[in-house]
Specification:
globular; six-stranded mixed sheet; alpha+beta; disordered C terminus; disordered N terminus; 27 strands; about 400 residues
Protein backbone atom coordinates (compact mmCIF):
# COMPACT_ATOMS: atom_id res chain seq x y z
CA UNK A 1 0.00 0.00 0.00
CA UNK A 2 1.41 3.36 -1.02
CA UNK A 3 0.93 6.14 1.49
CA UNK A 4 2.35 9.55 2.19
CA UNK A 5 5.18 9.35 4.72
CA UNK A 6 5.72 12.37 6.93
CA UNK A 7 8.52 12.84 9.41
CA UNK A 8 7.91 13.78 13.04
CA UNK A 9 10.38 16.48 14.05
CA UNK A 10 12.61 16.07 17.06
CA UNK A 11 13.85 19.41 18.35
CA UNK A 12 15.43 21.28 15.46
CA UNK A 13 15.40 18.54 12.83
CA UNK A 14 14.44 15.08 11.69
CA UNK A 15 16.49 11.96 12.28
CA UNK A 16 17.96 10.27 9.23
CA UNK A 17 17.05 6.68 8.38
CA UNK A 18 19.42 3.97 9.53
CA UNK A 19 21.32 2.06 6.88
CA UNK A 20 21.24 -1.32 8.61
CA UNK A 21 18.63 -4.05 8.18
CA UNK A 22 15.53 -2.89 10.03
CA UNK A 23 12.59 -4.83 11.39
CA UNK A 24 9.11 -3.36 11.91
CA UNK A 25 7.32 -4.52 15.05
CA UNK A 26 3.68 -3.79 15.87
CA UNK A 27 3.99 -2.78 19.53
CA UNK A 28 0.66 -1.09 20.28
CA UNK A 29 -2.74 -0.30 18.80
CA UNK A 30 -5.88 1.40 20.03
CA UNK A 31 -8.26 4.33 19.60
CA UNK A 32 -5.46 6.66 20.69
CA UNK A 33 -1.84 6.28 21.77
CA UNK A 34 0.60 8.47 23.65
CA UNK A 35 4.01 8.75 21.98
CA UNK A 36 7.02 10.30 23.72
CA UNK A 37 10.31 11.07 22.04
CA UNK A 38 13.26 11.76 24.36
CA UNK A 39 16.28 13.32 22.69
CA UNK A 40 18.92 11.06 24.26
CA UNK A 41 20.94 7.93 23.71
CA UNK A 42 19.61 4.68 25.17
CA UNK A 43 20.94 3.77 28.63
CA UNK A 44 23.69 1.20 28.91
CA UNK A 45 22.38 -1.72 31.00
CA UNK A 46 25.97 -2.45 32.13
CA UNK A 47 26.32 1.00 33.67
CA UNK A 48 25.65 1.60 37.35
CA UNK A 49 25.22 5.33 36.80
CA UNK A 50 21.70 6.71 37.12
CA UNK A 51 20.40 8.37 33.98
CA UNK A 52 19.63 12.07 34.28
CA UNK A 53 16.04 13.15 33.57
CA UNK A 54 15.55 14.06 29.93
CA UNK A 55 12.92 16.43 28.52
CA UNK A 56 10.43 14.70 26.25
CA UNK A 57 8.24 15.70 23.35
CA UNK A 58 4.86 14.04 23.79
CA UNK A 59 1.94 13.55 21.42
CA UNK A 60 -1.49 12.07 21.79
CA UNK A 61 -2.15 10.33 18.50
CA UNK A 62 -5.64 9.36 17.34
CA UNK A 63 -7.48 8.83 14.06
CA UNK A 64 -9.89 11.28 12.51
CA UNK A 65 -11.46 10.09 9.30
CA UNK A 66 -8.70 8.81 7.00
CA UNK A 67 -5.96 10.82 8.69
CA UNK A 68 -4.12 10.78 11.98
CA UNK A 69 -4.58 13.53 14.55
CA UNK A 70 -1.80 14.90 16.77
CA UNK A 71 -3.01 16.43 20.02
CA UNK A 72 -6.43 16.81 18.42
CA UNK A 73 -5.15 18.48 15.24
CA UNK A 74 -5.43 16.93 11.79
CA UNK A 75 -1.95 15.70 10.76
CA UNK A 76 -2.91 15.75 7.08
CA UNK A 77 -1.79 12.16 6.50
CA UNK A 78 -2.79 8.59 7.41
CA UNK A 79 0.83 7.87 8.43
CA UNK A 80 3.57 9.61 10.38
CA UNK A 81 7.12 8.28 10.45
CA UNK A 82 10.11 8.91 12.67
CA UNK A 83 13.01 6.93 11.16
CA UNK A 84 15.48 5.17 13.46
CA UNK A 85 18.92 6.64 14.10
CA UNK A 86 21.86 5.51 16.27
CA UNK A 87 20.88 5.81 19.93
CA UNK A 88 17.33 6.98 19.23
CA UNK A 89 14.49 6.02 21.57
CA UNK A 90 10.73 6.22 21.43
CA UNK A 91 8.16 5.56 24.15
CA UNK A 92 4.79 4.21 23.05
CA UNK A 93 1.97 3.61 25.53
CA UNK A 94 4.47 3.76 28.39
CA UNK A 95 6.97 1.28 26.93
CA UNK A 96 10.37 2.46 25.65
CA UNK A 97 11.91 1.04 22.48
CA UNK A 98 15.07 1.64 20.52
CA UNK A 99 14.83 3.09 17.03
CA UNK A 100 11.94 4.97 15.49
CA UNK A 101 8.20 4.62 15.05
CA UNK A 102 5.69 4.45 12.22
CA UNK A 103 2.18 5.55 13.17
CA UNK A 104 -0.68 4.61 10.88
CA UNK A 105 -4.43 5.03 10.91
CA UNK A 106 -6.14 1.64 10.75
CA UNK A 107 -9.89 0.98 11.05
CA UNK A 108 -10.62 4.05 13.12
CA UNK A 109 -7.67 3.50 15.45
CA UNK A 110 -3.92 3.91 15.53
CA UNK A 111 -1.16 1.34 15.06
CA UNK A 112 2.33 2.05 16.43
CA UNK A 113 5.08 0.15 14.64
CA UNK A 114 8.57 0.24 16.15
CA UNK A 115 11.20 0.41 13.38
CA UNK A 116 14.68 -0.58 14.51
CA UNK A 117 17.84 -2.46 13.62
CA UNK A 118 17.33 -6.20 13.86
CA UNK A 119 20.19 -6.58 16.37
CA UNK A 120 18.68 -3.94 18.67
CA UNK A 121 15.33 -5.71 18.34
CA UNK A 122 16.88 -8.95 19.60
CA UNK A 123 18.09 -7.20 22.75
CA UNK A 124 14.44 -6.90 23.78
CA UNK A 125 13.49 -10.41 22.61
CA UNK A 126 16.06 -12.85 23.99
CA UNK A 127 15.58 -12.00 27.71
CA UNK A 128 11.81 -12.13 27.19
CA UNK A 129 12.03 -15.65 25.77
CA UNK A 130 14.75 -17.23 27.95
CA UNK A 131 15.91 -16.54 31.55
CA UNK A 132 18.94 -14.20 31.31
CA UNK A 133 20.76 -16.15 34.03
CA UNK A 134 21.01 -19.29 31.90
CA UNK A 135 24.36 -20.42 30.38
CA UNK A 136 25.84 -18.23 27.65
CA UNK A 137 25.65 -20.98 24.98
CA UNK A 138 21.91 -21.45 25.56
CA UNK A 139 21.32 -17.69 25.34
CA UNK A 140 23.36 -17.55 22.14
CA UNK A 141 21.28 -20.35 20.61
CA UNK A 142 18.10 -18.46 21.54
CA UNK A 143 19.50 -15.30 19.93
CA UNK A 144 20.17 -17.15 16.66
CA UNK A 145 16.73 -18.73 16.42
CA UNK A 146 15.07 -15.42 17.32
CA UNK A 147 17.04 -13.69 14.55
CA UNK A 148 16.15 -16.48 12.14
CA UNK A 149 12.46 -16.22 13.05
CA UNK A 150 12.21 -12.51 12.34
CA UNK A 151 14.45 -12.52 9.25
CA UNK A 152 12.03 -14.93 7.58
CA UNK A 153 9.22 -12.44 8.16
CA UNK A 154 10.77 -9.22 6.87
CA UNK A 155 8.50 -8.15 4.02
CA UNK A 156 8.44 -4.48 2.90
CA UNK A 157 5.15 -5.11 1.07
CA UNK A 158 3.31 -5.51 4.40
CA UNK A 159 2.58 -2.78 6.99
CA UNK A 160 4.77 -4.54 9.57
CA UNK A 161 6.92 -7.66 9.84
CA UNK A 162 6.04 -9.06 13.26
CA UNK A 163 4.22 -8.29 16.51
CA UNK A 164 5.47 -8.02 20.09
CA UNK A 165 3.35 -10.74 21.73
CA UNK A 166 3.39 -14.53 22.03
CA UNK A 167 1.42 -14.65 18.78
CA UNK A 168 4.72 -13.79 17.10
CA UNK A 169 7.82 -13.46 19.28
CA UNK A 170 7.77 -11.73 22.67
CA UNK A 171 9.48 -8.31 22.49
CA UNK A 172 9.61 -6.00 25.51
CA UNK A 173 11.94 -3.23 24.41
CA UNK A 174 14.59 -1.48 26.46
CA UNK A 175 13.18 -2.47 29.86
CA UNK A 176 13.91 -6.15 29.17
CA UNK A 177 17.55 -5.74 28.18
CA UNK A 178 20.20 -7.53 30.27
CA UNK A 179 23.99 -7.65 30.11
CA UNK A 180 24.04 -11.43 29.52
CA UNK A 181 21.54 -11.43 26.68
CA UNK A 182 23.09 -8.34 25.07
CA UNK A 183 26.35 -10.32 25.04
CA UNK A 184 24.59 -13.28 23.38
CA UNK A 185 23.23 -11.01 20.65
CA UNK A 186 26.67 -9.48 20.02
CA UNK A 187 28.43 -12.86 20.03
CA UNK A 188 26.09 -14.20 17.34
CA UNK A 189 25.70 -11.01 15.30
CA UNK A 190 24.03 -11.77 11.96
CA UNK A 191 23.89 -15.54 12.49
CA UNK A 192 20.79 -17.40 11.30
CA UNK A 193 19.85 -21.04 10.77
CA UNK A 194 19.32 -21.79 7.07
CA UNK A 195 17.89 -24.61 4.99
CA UNK A 196 17.77 -24.62 1.21
CA UNK A 197 19.18 -21.09 1.05
CA UNK A 198 16.36 -19.63 3.18
CA UNK A 199 15.85 -19.01 6.90
CA UNK A 200 14.76 -22.23 8.56
CA UNK A 201 11.55 -22.53 10.58
CA UNK A 202 13.22 -22.39 14.00
CA UNK A 203 10.31 -23.45 16.18
CA UNK A 204 11.09 -23.95 19.84
CA UNK A 205 9.31 -24.88 23.04
CA UNK A 206 10.06 -24.74 26.73
CA UNK A 207 10.67 -28.44 27.39
CA UNK A 208 10.50 -31.41 25.01
CA UNK A 209 9.82 -33.77 27.90
CA UNK A 210 12.68 -36.00 26.80
CA UNK A 211 11.65 -36.44 23.16
CA UNK A 212 11.22 -33.75 20.50
CA UNK A 213 8.18 -33.83 18.22
CA UNK A 214 8.24 -33.71 14.44
CA UNK A 215 6.50 -30.89 12.61
CA UNK A 216 4.53 -33.52 10.70
CA UNK A 217 2.93 -35.02 13.82
CA UNK A 218 2.08 -31.65 15.38
CA UNK A 219 1.02 -29.58 12.37
CA UNK A 220 0.89 -32.01 9.45
CA UNK A 221 3.78 -30.21 7.73
CA UNK A 222 6.83 -32.38 7.19
CA UNK A 223 10.10 -30.43 7.40
CA UNK A 224 13.19 -32.67 7.24
CA UNK A 225 15.02 -30.84 10.02
CA UNK A 226 12.11 -30.79 12.50
CA UNK A 227 12.14 -34.43 13.51
CA UNK A 228 11.11 -36.63 16.41
CA UNK A 229 14.21 -37.69 18.35
CA UNK A 230 15.23 -38.63 21.86
CA UNK A 231 16.25 -35.56 23.86
CA UNK A 232 17.92 -36.69 27.09
CA UNK A 233 19.23 -33.17 27.68
CA UNK A 234 15.83 -31.72 28.63
CA UNK A 235 16.00 -32.41 32.33
CA UNK A 236 15.40 -30.41 35.46
CA UNK A 237 12.56 -28.27 34.17
CA UNK A 238 9.48 -27.53 36.29
CA UNK A 239 7.35 -29.46 33.78
CA UNK A 240 9.65 -32.42 33.27
CA UNK A 241 6.94 -34.63 34.80
CA UNK A 242 3.46 -33.51 35.79
CA UNK A 243 0.04 -34.84 36.77
CA UNK A 244 -3.39 -33.25 36.89
CA UNK A 245 -6.95 -34.28 37.62
CA UNK A 246 -9.68 -32.94 35.33
CA UNK A 247 -13.33 -32.96 36.38
CA UNK A 248 -15.94 -34.67 34.20
CA UNK A 249 -17.50 -31.27 33.48
CA UNK A 250 -14.18 -29.87 32.23
CA UNK A 251 -13.60 -32.94 30.06
CA UNK A 252 -17.08 -32.59 28.56
CA UNK A 253 -16.45 -28.91 27.86
CA UNK A 254 -13.19 -29.69 26.06
CA UNK A 255 -14.90 -32.46 24.06
CA UNK A 256 -17.74 -30.13 23.05
CA UNK A 257 -15.19 -27.66 21.66
CA UNK A 258 -14.15 -30.42 19.24
CA UNK A 259 -17.80 -31.23 18.42
CA UNK A 260 -17.71 -34.61 20.12
CA UNK A 261 -21.24 -35.89 20.81
CA UNK A 262 -21.29 -39.23 22.59
CA UNK A 263 -23.73 -38.52 25.40
CA UNK A 264 -22.38 -38.62 28.95
CA UNK A 265 -18.68 -39.41 28.87
CA UNK A 266 -17.57 -42.63 30.52
CA UNK A 267 -14.03 -43.21 29.23
CA UNK A 268 -11.36 -41.06 27.56
CA UNK A 269 -7.93 -42.34 26.62
CA UNK A 270 -5.05 -41.96 24.15
CA UNK A 271 -5.37 -44.93 21.79
CA UNK A 272 -2.51 -44.05 19.46
CA UNK A 273 0.68 -42.11 20.13
CA UNK A 274 3.33 -40.71 17.79
CA UNK A 275 6.96 -41.75 17.72
CA UNK A 276 7.65 -39.00 20.25
CA UNK A 277 4.93 -40.23 22.60
CA UNK A 278 2.42 -37.47 21.82
CA UNK A 279 -1.30 -38.08 21.37
CA UNK A 280 -2.25 -38.89 17.77
CA UNK A 281 -5.63 -40.49 18.49
CA UNK A 282 -7.94 -39.97 21.46
CA UNK A 283 -10.97 -42.23 21.84
CA UNK A 284 -13.95 -40.88 23.78
CA UNK A 285 -16.65 -43.31 24.89
CA UNK A 286 -20.02 -42.21 26.20
CA UNK A 287 -23.58 -43.37 26.78
CA UNK A 288 -24.49 -42.56 23.17
CA UNK A 289 -21.49 -43.93 21.30
CA UNK A 290 -17.81 -43.60 20.55
CA UNK A 291 -15.85 -40.79 18.87
CA UNK A 292 -12.20 -40.41 17.90
CA UNK A 293 -10.05 -37.35 17.53
CA UNK A 294 -6.97 -37.71 15.32
CA UNK A 295 -3.76 -35.87 14.53
CA UNK A 296 -3.63 -32.22 15.57
CA UNK A 297 -7.14 -32.47 17.05
CA UNK A 298 -5.99 -35.24 19.39
CA UNK A 299 -3.09 -33.17 20.68
CA UNK A 300 -5.25 -30.05 20.86
CA UNK A 301 -7.84 -31.86 22.95
CA UNK A 302 -5.19 -33.01 25.43
CA UNK A 303 -3.90 -29.45 25.70
CA UNK A 304 -7.49 -28.20 26.14
CA UNK A 305 -7.71 -30.34 29.27
CA UNK A 306 -5.03 -28.11 30.78
CA UNK A 307 -2.07 -30.35 29.96
CA UNK A 308 1.26 -28.60 29.46
CA UNK A 309 2.08 -30.94 26.57
CA UNK A 310 0.35 -33.56 24.43
CA UNK A 311 3.10 -36.02 25.45
CA UNK A 312 0.68 -37.50 27.94
CA UNK A 313 -1.45 -40.49 28.92
CA UNK A 314 -5.05 -40.40 30.13
CA UNK A 315 -6.34 -42.69 32.86
CA UNK A 316 -9.52 -43.67 30.96
CA UNK A 317 -12.53 -43.74 33.32
CA UNK A 318 -14.30 -40.43 33.96
CA UNK A 319 -17.53 -39.65 35.79
CA UNK A 320 -19.23 -37.34 38.31
CA UNK A 321 -17.02 -38.63 41.12
CA UNK A 322 -14.15 -39.81 38.95
CA UNK A 323 -11.84 -37.11 37.56
CA UNK A 324 -9.80 -37.89 34.48
CA UNK A 325 -6.13 -38.25 35.43
CA UNK A 326 -3.68 -36.81 32.91
CA UNK A 327 0.03 -37.51 33.33
CA UNK A 328 2.80 -36.36 31.05
CA UNK A 329 6.14 -34.69 30.52
CA UNK A 330 7.36 -31.50 28.91
CA UNK A 331 5.82 -28.12 28.13
CA UNK A 332 4.80 -26.76 24.75
CA UNK A 333 4.49 -28.33 21.30
CA UNK A 334 7.94 -29.94 21.48
CA UNK A 335 8.99 -29.09 17.91
CA UNK A 336 12.55 -27.87 17.34
CA UNK A 337 14.75 -26.52 20.11
CA UNK A 338 13.87 -27.36 23.69
CA UNK A 339 14.93 -24.48 25.89
CA UNK A 340 15.60 -26.72 28.88
CA UNK A 341 17.48 -29.02 26.52
CA UNK A 342 19.61 -26.11 25.31
CA UNK A 343 20.37 -25.31 28.94
CA UNK A 344 21.32 -28.95 29.59
CA UNK A 345 23.61 -29.10 26.57
CA UNK A 346 25.26 -25.81 27.52
CA UNK A 347 25.89 -27.15 31.01
CA UNK A 348 27.65 -30.11 29.38
CA UNK A 349 30.01 -27.75 27.56
CA UNK A 350 28.38 -27.74 24.10
CA UNK A 351 28.53 -24.40 22.27
CA UNK A 352 25.54 -22.72 20.65
CA UNK A 353 26.33 -24.03 17.15
CA UNK A 354 26.26 -27.64 18.35
CA UNK A 355 23.04 -26.99 20.24
CA UNK A 356 21.47 -25.69 17.04
CA UNK A 357 22.91 -28.59 15.04
CA UNK A 358 21.27 -31.07 17.40
CA UNK A 359 17.80 -29.52 17.38
CA UNK A 360 17.77 -28.61 13.66
CA UNK A 361 19.70 -31.48 12.02
CA UNK A 362 20.65 -30.99 8.39
CA UNK A 363 20.53 -27.20 8.57
CA UNK A 364 23.36 -24.72 8.08
CA UNK A 365 24.68 -21.56 9.67
CA UNK A 366 24.32 -18.48 7.52
CA UNK A 367 24.90 -14.75 7.78
CA UNK A 368 22.07 -12.23 7.55
CA UNK A 369 22.61 -9.13 5.46
CA UNK A 370 20.52 -6.35 3.94
CA UNK A 371 19.97 -5.60 0.27
CA UNK A 372 20.71 -1.84 0.08
CA UNK A 373 17.69 0.27 -0.72
CA UNK A 374 15.16 -2.56 -0.56
CA UNK A 375 14.65 -3.29 3.13
CA UNK A 376 14.95 -7.00 2.29
CA UNK A 377 17.26 -9.60 3.81
CA UNK A 378 19.60 -12.07 2.14
CA UNK A 379 21.65 -14.97 3.46
CA UNK A 380 25.33 -15.57 2.74
CA UNK A 381 28.35 -17.59 3.93
CA UNK A 382 26.47 -20.84 4.43
CA UNK A 383 28.25 -23.64 6.29
CA UNK A 384 26.91 -26.81 7.95
CA UNK A 385 26.19 -26.76 11.66
CA UNK A 386 28.45 -29.09 13.65
CA UNK A 387 27.40 -32.25 15.47
CA UNK A 388 27.52 -32.58 19.25
CA UNK A 389 30.88 -33.16 20.84
CA UNK A 390 31.28 -36.59 22.46
CA UNK A 391 30.85 -36.64 26.25
CA UNK A 392 33.99 -35.89 28.20
CA UNK A 393 35.61 -39.08 29.56
CA UNK A 394 35.09 -39.79 33.22
CA UNK A 395 38.13 -39.05 35.36
CA UNK A 396 39.73 -42.20 36.81
CA UNK A 397 40.18 -42.22 40.56
CA UNK A 398 42.38 -44.43 42.65
CA UNK A 399 40.78 -47.03 44.90
CA UNK A 400 43.85 -47.45 47.14
CA UNK A 401 42.99 -47.31 50.79
CA UNK A 402 39.31 -48.16 50.26
Amino acid sequence: MRSLMLTLALGSGALSAAQALNVRVLVASGPQLTVRLPVTAAPDPASSLAAAPVPENAWTVSAGGANLRLNGQDAGSPTLYLPPAPGSLVTVAGQTYRGGVLLRAERGGVQAINVLDVEDYLRGVVPAEMPPGWPAAALAAQAVIARTYVSARINPALPYDTCATESCQVYRGVAAEKVSTDAAVRATAGQVVAFGGRPASTYFSSDSGGFTASSAEVWGRDLPYLIAQADPYSVGGPRAHWRLEVSAAQVAQAAAAYRVRVGTLRDVRVTRASESGRAQEVTLTGTAGVARLNGADAGGFVRALGAASSRAVLSGPVGPDTPLVVEGSGSGHGVGLSQYGARGLAQQGQDHLRILGFYYPGTALSQLAAVPGTGRAVLAQVRPLPALLPPAPLALTSSHGE
